[in-house]
Specification:
By secondary structure, the protein is mainly alpha-helical. Helix content is about 50%, strand content about 10%.
Length: about 450
């Protein structure tokens, strides 16, 4: 499920909620080779992760093939569609000629009577107007005009009798009572063709709104070189679904200068007519800023589960005797995390087992003067009975003052001893997360190694 598809689903969901309408999901699986069970599951998983709940069970297009054929027959009976018996070779020759003459493909069977009693294979094509123009009154772009002579007679039924995309979606949209079709810019040409099919069937057209595409930070069309593209990739990178909803809503739409807003505010403010016409650009810095906001606001128990899952995914499961320390660490370090993976990185220090393997930098700091100072600090900390962050902050300040030095003479070595050289929060937070026994034990281990 591409990030562009996710944003399209979000905009449909917001507009349905804003207008008191109904958000429906349809799986367009007429291409049976591409529409595998796994591919469909990815769509449902992506929608579920984003929290975009449909208001009715999904419709599977492949289950409605008979209804699509019925509509095509209605067009044939009305003279708005015809059987085309062109062979593959004839079609290739016509395409070459049409390209050379700067026109669309036209079948000679457009104006011929169908073969009676023949077993020759055929497709069924739509008989377009040929002249005049088709106007799509787009909700975002405004009126878009298409010269009918530039619209080919598209195939409605293949030689095996299966319906093609354009006729299937028209029939399903009509039968499902769809009033608004909000989709990507790459479907704008389809809107013209589908409008003609609606008109030919005597059905009212829905309102169309075509969203500009999402580009990479460099302004080029989003591709693999820009990083993540699929919703599952963003989830795997540690982005929260509520952050992705907030960020995706800002890709091409916004409310004044608001960067952060609640779901209720987005529903109240969103109108598809306010979507900008220019392509949106993926901005990693802004996404990280928004994700950090939601991490800071998230329930710590929920973050614990996500961080534990991240550690498990790295093949480093959280030991049972470290779960309490991990739980204590999360609220102390989460303000500095842009993603869940970063939050997991910031909690590694509490998961280490004694004795810690100190990094070279810490070993280099443990000269005689620093070691003696840490011995005195260890004694001072052992007398702290209220092992909480405010009390520990005060204890460290008092110790530095008694030593007549700044925290810079204490902090680097103490942090290295407590963390083994990996990322760690401020000293009081690290001590709080590790708890009294583990903190003093790590100090003892380091001091014994440095003597």
């Amino acid at each position: 499920m591409h990030i562009g598809t996710a944003r399209t689903a979000l905009f449909n969901w917001l507009y349905a909620r804003h207008t008191g309408g109904t958000f429906l999901v349809r799986i367009e699986d007429t291409d049976r080779e591409r529409s595998t069970e796994d591919a469909v599951k990815v769509i449902f998983d992506g929608l579920a992760w984003l929290g975009l709940d449909a208001d009715a069970p999904p419709v599977f297009q492949a289950q409605r093939v008979d209804r699509h054929r019925e509509a095509v027959q209605q067009l044939v009976d009305a003279g708005r569609a015809y059987r085309c018996y062109m062979t593959v070779e004839e079609l290739d020759a016509e395409r070459t000629l049409a390209r050379a003459e700067g026109r669309v493909v036209r079948s000679p069977w457009r104006d011929r009577e169908p073969l009676v009693g023949s077993n020759a294979p055929f497709v069924v094509r739509f008989r377009g107007p040929g002249d005049g123009e088709t106007i799509v009154d787009d909700l975002i772009k405004g009126p878009v005009r298409f010269a009918n002579r530039e619209l080919d007679d598209l195939v409605l039924l293949r030689t095996d009798g299966t319906p093609t995309y354009n006729v299937a979606v028209v029939v399903d949209d009509h039968d499902m009572g769809i009033t608004h079709v909000i989709r990507g810019d790459d479907h704008l040409n389809n809107a013209a063709r589908q409008s003609l099919i609606y008109d030919a069937l005597g059905w009212e057209r829905p309102a169309f709104g075509h969203l500009p595409l999402i580009h990479g930070p460099d302004g080029a069309k989003l591709s693999k070189r820009h990083g993540a593209q699929a919703v599952s990739e963003f989830a795997g990178m540690g982005y929260l679904p509520e952050a992705m909803r907030n960020y995706l809503a800002r890709l091409g739409w916004g409310h004044k200068d608001d960067e952060i807003f609640t779901e209720e505010q987005a529903v109240a403010w969103f109108d598809v007519k306010d979507v900008v016409k220019a392509p949106a650009r993926l901005d990693w810095d802004k996404l990280n800023f928004i994700n950090n906001h939601y991490i800071r606001a998230a329930d710590d128990a929920r973050l614990f589960d996500m961080v534990e899952q991240a550690h498990n995914g790295r093949g480093e499961p959280v030991p049972a005797n470290k779960r309490d320390a991990l739980s204590r660490a999360i609220p102390l370090v989460k303000d500095g995390a842009k993603t869940i993976l970063e939050l997991a990185d910031l909690t590694v220090f509490v998961l280490k087992t004694r004795p810690l393997q100190m990094d070279a930098k810490t070993v280099g700091l443990l000269n005689e003067e620093t070691t003696q100072r840490l011995i005195r600090l260890r004694h001072a900390l052992s007398e702290v009975t209220d092992w909480t962050k405010p009390t520990l902050e005060q204890a460290i300040r008092d110790f530095a003052q008694s030593e007549g030095v700044g925290l810079g003479k204490i902090g680097p070595a103490l942090r290295g001893v407590l963390s083994g050289g990996v990322a760690a929060p401020d000293l009081a937070s690290a001590l709080t997360a590790l708890a009294r026994e583990e903190s003093l034990g790590r100090l003892d281990d380091a001091l014994s190694q440095s003597r």
